[in-house]
Amino acid sequence: MAHQAHAYHMVDPSPWPLTGATAALLMTSGLAIWFHFHSLSLLYLGLTLLLLTMIQWWRDIIREGTFQGHHTPPVQKGLRYGMILFITSEVFFFLGFFWAFYHSSLAPTPELGGCWPPTGINPLDPFEVPLLNTAVLLASGVTVTWAHHSLMEGNRKEAIQALTLTIILGFYFTALQAMEYYEAPFTIADGVYGTTFFVATGFHGLHVIIGSTFLTICLLRQIQYHFTSEHHFGFEAAAWYWHFVDVVWLFLYVSIYWWGS
Amino acid sequence: MAMAAFRWKLWSCGLSRLTASRTPAARVIARPMASTGIPTDEEQSTGLERKTLQAIKKGMDPYSIFKPKEYAGTKEDPHVVPATTDKRLVGCICEEDNTAIVWFWLHSGNPQRCPSCGSHYKLEHHELPH
């Protein structure tokens, strides 16, 4: 144990930032190679390295915090700031796509028929599957809050149940959305409508998958007694991310599905 | 006063649960008998986290998590500067919003005064926490 007079965590040297950067290089150049030379090898290599980096880096953080006790109150505070800043950056990411959507839909060009939805586009009925999806995500927000309260109250059984239910709802959303994508009468190539629809909802869907994965890791950790009733920041971070995903969907639903129809 | 400051600090560190067991009267574990299965920090914390939490429970702050106590800086009530060695650097911001910090070494023994504003400082020896 290091003899330090402060409560911060001086992290041991780690190879994962380097492997992560290497993965980023392989993925970007791999994408270019795929575009020009029809080979996916470099891209696959990059993705594999990315997956290995994430698993091992976050595994190490769990070891440092839960098993070695390095996450003192000030360290935890820093992690909270970090997660908030990250989610804020994601908000700006989505803001860009909403900007693009409103730019094209508020003043539709003559090429589109001067109207929105553009001529020839049959939008999805917002009161069918999209409305169900809204209910599913809202319900999952309730269940994740239930899980948090169960955690704080020391109720293991209910915490596991509520977290499992949240994850099931997340998968249900993803399955419904995948079906919608398959059945949709328009594609990403159908003008600016298709582009804005599939890029915005597509990135949202990716974030739902990321959030579901994060929650699943939390479920596995909760089953293995990692969390205490006072200290469970990994779970809180996952819950914040999940609420963010839910809020983005609400904006997507109101803007693209409802107003945009 | 110090207790209230501790309590506020713990809240801002996201550990509102801890404040429930601060006073002897509220020593009950804040969890009803029916809910079980999730360990508490008391049961499961380890390493440096455990050391900081146990120290906080005893009203101590060996890792300088909280803001230092405030002193008048007079001869009767000098600024007490904790140190693990015989001397420590002090930076005196004589008046609020001063941008020129007055730096000087504070040695163990007799209190010293800031060469600029004359506030009194006294070194207080602490063992390195281990």
Automatic annotation (TrEMBL), chain A:
Coiled coil location: none
Subcellular location per the Swiss-Prot or TrEMBL entry: Mitochondrion inner membrane
The keyword Mitochondrion belongs to this UniProt entry's keyword annotation: yes
Chemical reaction(s) catalysed: 4 Fe(II)-[cytochrome c] + O2 + 8 H(+)(in) = 4 Fe(III)-[cytochrome c] + 2 H2O + 4 H(+)(out)
Topology of the protein relative to the lipid bilayer: Multi-pass membrane protein
Domain Heme-copper oxidase subunit III family profile stretches: 4-261
Entry keyword Transmembrane helix: yes
Gene Ontology terms for molecular function: cytochrome-c oxidase activity
Any GO BP: mitochondrial electron transport, cytochrome c to oxygen
GO annotations of cellular component type: mitochondrial inner membrane
Residue ranges crossing the lipid bilayer per the database entry: 16-35, 41-58, 79-102, 129-147, 159-177, 197-220, 240-260
N-terminal signal peptide: none
InterPro entries tied to this protein: Cyt_c/ubiquinol_Oxase_su3, Cyt_c_oxase_su3_dom, Cyt_c_oxidase-like_su3, Cyt_c_oxidase_su3-like_sf, Cyt_c_oxidase_su3_a-hlx
Keywords linked to the UniProt accession: Membrane, Mitochondrion, Mitochondrion inner membrane, Translocase, Transmembrane, Transmembrane helix
Task of the protein: Component of the cytochrome c oxidase, the last enzyme in the mitochondrial electron transport chain which drives oxidative phosphorylation. The respiratory chain contains 3 multisubunit complexes succinate dehydrogenase (complex II, CII), ubiquinol-cytochrome c oxidoreductase (cytochrome b-c1 complex, complex III, CIII) and cytochrome c oxidase (complex IV, CIV), that cooperate to transfer electrons derived from NADH and succinate to molecular oxygen, creating an electrochemical gradient over the inner membrane that drives transmembrane transport and the ATP synthase.
Family named by the database record: Belongs to the cytochrome c oxidase subunit 3 family.
Protein name, entry field: Cytochrome c oxidase subunit 3
Annotated organism of origin: Cetorhinus maximus
Gene designation per UniProt: COX3
